[in-house]
Please model this.
Amino acid sequence: MQNRCLVPWTAFIEWEDTKPKKTERQFVIDPSKPLAFFAGIWTPWKGERGSQKNPRAGEHELFGFLTCEANAVVKPIHAKAMPVLLTSEADIDLWMTAEWDLAKVLQRPYPNEEMAVLPAATTTTEPLLI
Model:
């Protein structure tokens, strides 16, 4: 429970290994659930952040998110892993309040049928359902 957080998102990007350069691919969930969350973790950190040209020294709060095995929608583009996606109030509550022994059930691929990848090089928000 300590150091857990929610990272809001409406779409996330993975890079497809195309030639001569990689292609940005956007993943979305069912349009009836426009906002979702990554199961996040955060930690305080003291040091220098930012670019070499503009470093910022001090105390910072850094975050990352939990990953799991990629589902069938993500796997063709990013086979290694996908973020843990939280969309229900019950899952969000479980992530934020439960001990790890209970919360770890959330570390599973998101259902294929509730997720889509947008066509490459598009600006539309209409998902291509797979």
User: Anything to note?
Assistant: Strands lie at 4-9, 12-16, 23-29, 36-50, 55-65, 67-68, 82-83, 85-86, 115-117, 128-129. Residues 4-9+32-113 form a domain with the hypothetical protein yedk fold fold (CATH 3.90.1680.10).
